[in-house]
Design goal:
heterodimer; A: 291 residues; mainly alpha; B: 256 residues; alpha/beta; Rossmann fold; globular
Chain lengths: 291, 256
Amino acid sequence: MSTYLQGILILAGINLIAVLGLSLLTGFTGSFCFGQAGFLAVGAYVSTLITMKFNMPFPISLVTGMMAAGLISILLGYPTLKLKGDYFAIATLGFSEAIRLVIENLDKITGGARGIPSIPTRTTLPLVILIAFIATVCIRFYVISKHGRNSIAVREDETAAQSIGINTFRYKQISFFINCLLAGLAGGLLAHYVGFIQPAMFGIIKSTELIVMVIFGGMHSVTGAALAAVILTALPEILRAAAAWRLVAYGAVVVFIMVVRPEGLLGSWELSWTSLRILWASLKPSLPQKR
Amino acid sequence: MENAILNITNLSKYFGGVKAVDDFSLSLTEGSIQAIIGPNGAGKTTIFNLITGLYKPTTGEIFFHNHKIDSIDTFRIAEMGIARTFQNIRLFPELSVLDNVRTACHSKANYSILEGLIPTRRRIQQEKQLTEYAMGLLRLVKLDNRADDYASNLSYGHRRRLEIARAMAIEPQLLLLDEPAAGMNPDETQKLMEFIAEIREKFNLTILLIEHHMEVVMGLAYYITVIDFGKTIANGTPDEIQSNPVVIAAYLGVGE
């Protein structure tokens, strides 16, 4: 496989991992998170520093990056998840911008706006595919579990959820935590693939890109979000023929899907063996029965 | 009150200058059905919101089985055994009928978050039990044939029944029903009354009811509290209330 194609697939896989958590938090739990890039940045910088300053093996730096992002979700979630509706989105947006500025100004440790060059590249395609697959399966299982149902209940009607004994704050906190773990993991993988990180990579554009993937794929579908992550990562490359117009075309595709299918590509439909079988059965023309 | 399941003393709730509930007291005997009636805006739903912890009282106290519950979280009150329905039906529209009830039985399954990510044997077994239990409740409200439909696709009457099934799923000792017969025709109302009597018997429930349909109130309640503008204006058995001139003037209308 050409390194070009491999590169696209790796980036698609990394985006997929970051989008899965967002699908759980925003799509299933109903807390709109607009600062995913901030958690990606935490994972990327922490894992890079662990790799470069302490010469730790790759798995340890990845896990440390995840944990750092997870820890931040607890600290940030406590005051902000009690906020209603859009305020949480604004709080996460503010946080991710703050993180970016902190990284820019800690230039002794993080290299400031110039970033950190020559990070050992350790992220491989099989590793990304493996992690993306496991994460997708786990999140898919989670949303159909009791905990997933409780999260959906929080999204659907918080007051009603409380009235049947669901600790709504706890479930938002758990979804936020899982989201940040995955974002931190994606950040670590990204840093060790690109080999270079700088604060500008983790701005509001990145957050928007990821949230668009969730909405594009279907707010209530884990596999939809995963599929959208792959499609939307590959799309600018496919549209490369359009040269300078490719980002316009990208925007047009997103707008088109949102107008034609506002519930997203898959809506609340999930990709699985069972659902594919049902789809196949419904598409298959019914053959005349022989008597 | 020896066998009181719920005791409310001097409860008040002010919203700014508005006295939504003013010095309300109530004692609910275990196993009984009581009703709170009063004109629209009298503060009935506010009382439910205070009991279930959605609002914190301005003054006064609420005791459930002699535990003070007026300053604890809504979900903990539900865990203690107080379930409710809502005046304007609050289901989880994008969950299936079955999942609406299964969600409410969540405390029957105790598998961990980690087991939420990986289906272990314990999880599969517990989920199976939840499904069986939830289907049992759906059969009780005659919605078992709609189990896989989205809750949002149910008719109004079915949504009411599903909401009661969901409330029953937490195995409450006290059930608060907020206008369960609202929008129902006489035939449906009659069936609802029979249903409420049936579940009270079957699950040994205590019921506190808000209702405008007088035949429901008079037919079901052992004891009635009438409130108007947040104040209690009368207390008594259905017969006493029906002949109370203050109530007739304020609520039932003169000459009825």
